[in-house]
Amino acid sequence: LGYLLSDVPDPLDRPLVANFTSRSVCLSWAASRNSHNNPVSHYVIETRIGERGAWNATEEIVTANNETTYNIKNLHPFTVYSFRVSAVNAMGRSKPSRESYYTVTLREVPTGKPIITSAHNTSATSIYLAWKAPSSDTIHGEFLGYRIGYKPRDKPYLAEKEVYIRNQAVDNHTIRNLQAYTQYLVSLQVFNPDGHGPATTVSVMTDDGERGYPERLGIGVVMIEPVRGPGASSTWAESWLEVEGSIWREGFLAPCQNDVETVY
């Protein structure tokens, strides 16, 4: 009298990445060498992000059948991944395979915008710009630095002048050699080897360099901007100088207002 012993499948060999894109990986593996008298019904795929990430940090993928390839989607660009696979039969789930070799998904152009924290004139011919970098998970590649573009607002036919800052640690810059009493559109983008991300743009006006202002404790900008969004209406602000907590504007005092408005 013979007996058939049943058990969970033997562990699989190391799975292999057949191909990949910026947001997907095609994973393949060989079937279990021994399913112990119970056919494999499906597989469970575990995903690890980074070289030291936890295996339980992402939801397991349960395949619909016993095919030995699977296209893993909804991944992040320029991210390190590894995978391991378990086989499942009527008796249960095998031990996981050895993890796949590390795979870095492809780059994409950045999707994050820098946040401009300050933008104002410092003289009749210069503008100061300061910012915060976008979140690192929106860079989608090697963070190479920033691009600043600028041109007079009333001359849209002119090509932007450019400044490239090839140091991601830099968070401010002064644009010089500008025209006096001129409104400029200034844009800021991050870039990686695949291209430039979306721009954050502000409108800033240089000083006229002629009027005898009181002693300057702070400098603002000129803006005439439509503000888009629910419940928003057009707004404007004039060039101002802060003097002991108030605003000097064309010979009268007015409450302080923000000196930066984003152009969408």
TrEMBL record:
It comes from the Eukaryota. GO terms for cellular component: synapse. InterPro entries: FN3_dom (IPR003961), FN3_sf (IPR036116), Ig-like_fold (IPR013783), Striated_Muscle_Regulatory (IPR050964). Pfam families: fn3. Keywords: Repeat. GO terms for biological process: homophilic cell adhesion via plasma membrane adhesion molecules; synapse assembly. PANTHER family: NEURONAL IGCAM-RELATED (PTHR13817:SF166), TITIN (PTHR13817). This is Protein sidekick-2.
